[in-house]
Amino acid sequence: MKEKKIYKRKDGRFEIRYVYGLKENGNMNYKSLYGKTKEEVLSKYNQRIKKDILIFNKELLENDIYRWLKSAKIRCKKSTYSNYRYIVNARIIPRFAKVKKKSITSEIIDCYTTELLEEGLSPKTVKDIIILLHQILKFAGINIKISMPKVPKNEIQIFKVEDQIKLEKFLLKNMNTTSFGIYFCLYTGLRIGEVCALKWEDIDIENKKIKIKKTITRIKNEDTNAKKKTTIIIDDPKSISSIREIPIPDFIIPVLKEIRKDSTTTNFLITGTNKFIETRTYLNKYKKILQKINLREYNFHALRHTFATRCIENGCDPKTLSEILGHSSVKITLERYVHPNYENKVKMMNQLKPLYN
Could you tell me the sign of the dihedral formed by the alpha carbons of 67, 71, 73, 79, in that order? Predict the structure, then answer.
């Protein structure tokens, strides 16, 4: 055993400090033992480490879990870290903190994956948990092959042309800051958090462009004793590529000028004041508009999907669209949008002519 440092205190007693596990933030949790002599305090320490099951143990995965979480706090966005912390505390620590690293195998992870699925969690949620666990294991130097659960692809929602026309007609006839935000998303592809965080200082009407640099997100409160379990933050967008400039279509400029009126540069676009609207509140306003005009429940992201689809239909190249949408790679754009819808398939099939009549 490495010799522990023993300190003589001002009151004449001797003290020895040792690591007793880790705190939730990943910092070392220290405890102290005291004695009248060096021999007494060392004897107490030797007795304590034999029976203290929570003593810092490098053989257990617990140490690496907290160290990984601490590093994530430094390198990740607040919203990303909040999500990581929740998954780690709710799913990974209870199951793996006290497991010896050398005993972790692919079979154990596969069994855990099955347990989560049988518990009723969606394949997407289970995959997110296993991906995070895989990162922690690699951080701990455990390189094992892990099988990911298959996640069925959700069909993206796109407004039918007749539904889009119906929505636009209502928005233009009932134009205010709320309806304009929806109209703006339909023709710029903004995410709901991005449009809620957009201020007039981010909009350059003269040069017909907008700068996307912030998003509004609701995250779980790090303080477990706080009255509110969640808090709202205005943070950087989803990824570095999401910080972008988007050209504003010419036909939107007159509407934009009319909406601005007396708003100052520090006012938020869709409130017209210096107070933002929360994404959940704005989503409810959007849903009420759909109900009012008897449209089926398209999710808010359908506005973004519809924008991207119309761009492709009008001949926009995937690379340009990828940058407008703020995707991290053109591959994402290609996989999601560069494929024909059913109407285009019908049109193509009907263009065929028999070679022999």
Answer: negative
